[in-house]
Amino acid sequence: MSCSRVSVAPAAEPAHTRVSARNLAGLRRYLWLRLRYPRLRVGLFFADRGAEIVVGPRARLCVGRGVRLMRDFSGHFDGVVTLGDGVFFNRGCTVVVRHSLAIGDHCLFGEGVSIHDENHVGGPGVTSLAARGFVAAPIVVGSNVWVGARAVILAGVRIGDGAVIGAGAVVTRDIPAGVLAAGVPARVVRHLPGCRP
Amino acid sequence: MSCSRVSVAPAAEPAHTRVSARNLAGLRRYLWLRLRYPRLRVGLFFADRGAEIVVGPRARLCVGRGVRLMRDFSGHFDGVVTLGDGVFFNRGCTVVVRHSLAIGDHCLFGEGVSIHDENHVGGPGVTSLAARGFVAAPIVVGSNVWVGARAVILAGVRIGDGAVIGAGAVVTRDIPAGVLAAGVPARVVRHLPGCRP
Amino acid sequence: MSCSRVSVAPAAEPAHTRVSARNLAGLRRYLWLRLRYPRLRVGLFFADRGAEIVVGPRARLCVGRGVRLMRDFSGHFDGVVTLGDGVFFNRGCTVVVRHSLAIGDHCLFGEGVSIHDENHVGGPGVTSLAARGFVAAPIVVGSNVWVGARAVILAGVRIGDGAVIGAGAVVTRDIPAGVLAAGVPARVVRHLPGCRP
């Protein structure tokens, strides 16, 4: 990356506040979800084309303001799910919650990110994998966390405030606040500017 | 992962045996595939919304009972494809077969898994990459194998019974039975409980 | 990979030159894009089902002959984008350009590849991540480059002619011509046959 060629682009005006065909369709999807799961009490959020949310009997949802789930988002919620204000999931993300997931304010998730708070019970055996059920553990993500495209976050991890998870990383252990973590499995690469080591 | 917070959820009743709009649409997709490729002789399987299967002239398919290809599955079959009973591909998987692919019973594939038994012929040259054709080698996956989300399985590898492939792993070499393999490229991390080292 | 089982399949006749329902729908999508962004002057290309191209005010597009953007391609173009002849993006690729992206002739991109010439400005802070804007740097990809499935190419990198990027790799630094690079982050694995070290 040659610094001489770097340019800083201003962030676009948030597209979810305009009146548009896309946003009206998102509103229709939101209302449909409320009708389908009347016991859920969630504030308004934006669900884009192809977004699919399946809510199980043990689900409790708490959704902040300005949450956007972009195209082809896939959510299977059968636990306690908390999404802070302004949380943004880019296209094609998958979130499966059987125990609990808490995400702080203003977190951004790149396209194709997967979050799973559950694991199958692997290994050979007499019973099939699908019949063995799942082992789940809570996931906690702080505020202002940016998760790069196609990263995977697995059961039981905590990610601190302001951390950056590199594209394609697989987070299998806790990541502290204010660091860049990357790789498979994800390791701390460096502290971000302005964050004490 | 704090063990004190771990919960074990029972596996859901298999959704593919209910009469539902989704399953009837899946049946329509299956019948359309049979009509389009009359020489194929495959048992009933479930193909979800957006599933796309292209069958070439050299394809031979053998599909077990209870196979499910979830949303946006993409299959390009121009070789010998064998899928065991209960094989499950979660959303957005891609399977390209030009030589052969054999998958044992009850294997589970997470969302966004790619399986390719072919490679382009890389490097610079006078002819374009697309005009150089492919080199293919068979892939064999045992029974009760669980492949994590967004993993990639490449040409010529064998994966043993009961192995677990970590999320985001790229499998370039053989993986023995009963181990957890992860990383890019995938390496054996440990033997699973109950599996002799 | 046992060499004795390797077979070489001939490349299929290019599907984009046939008259088919899929190609006619692609033509309709192309014409719609031209109508929506009349100031763009781009040659004919193929955009498959679900392809979505958003063009910003600062975008300049230069598209070669026989370019194909397969199913669910997602392009956000707000910079200078140059695609050479015969460039092929398989399904589910994401390309975000705020500064510039130049791709040479006959490059092939596997399914689910992400290209981003921009980064968020990470770390904790008072303002939200989304309000901080982006830092962008140009990406240059040579000719006859093959990028494997689900790889990610990040801001400011150059990839030389005839390089092969392994599946699932995350390219964070420059890759020279004629090599195979793989891993997270991507490193040179070996020189390709016929390429001097």
Question: Which descriptors would you attach to this protein?
Answer:
mainly beta, homotrimer, 1 helix, disordered N terminus, six-stranded parallel beta sheet, globular, eight-stranded mixed beta sheet, 197 residues
> Overall mean pLDDT score of chain A?
87
The total beta strand count of chain A reads: 22
Shape of chain A: globular
Order of helices and strands of chain A: EHEEEEEEEEEEEEEEEEEEEEE
Strand order of the largest sheet of chain A: 2-5-8-11-16-19-21-22
Number of helices of chain A: 1
Radius of gyration of chain A: 18 Å
Amount of helix of chain A? under 10%
Most residues in contact, chain pair and counts: A-B, 40 and 47 residues
Span between termini of chain A: 25 Å
Largest β-sheet summary of chain A: 8 strands, mixed
Regarding quaternary structure, what we see is homotrimer
Give the topology.
3 copies of one chain form a homotrimer.
Chain A: E1 7-9, H1 21-36, E2 46-47, E3 52-55, E4 60-63, E5 68-69, E6 74-77, E7 80-83, E8 88-89, E9 94-97, E10 100-103, E11 108-109, E12 114-116, E13 118-120, E14 134-136, E15 139-141, E16 146-147, E17 152-153, E18 158-159, E19 164-165, E20 170-171, E21 179-182, E22 187-191
Parallel strand pairs in A: 2-5, 3-6, 4-7, 5-8, 6-9, 7-10, 8-11, 9-12, 10-15, 11-16, 12-17, 15-18, 16-19, 17-20, 19-21
Antiparallel strand pairs in A: 13-14, 21-22
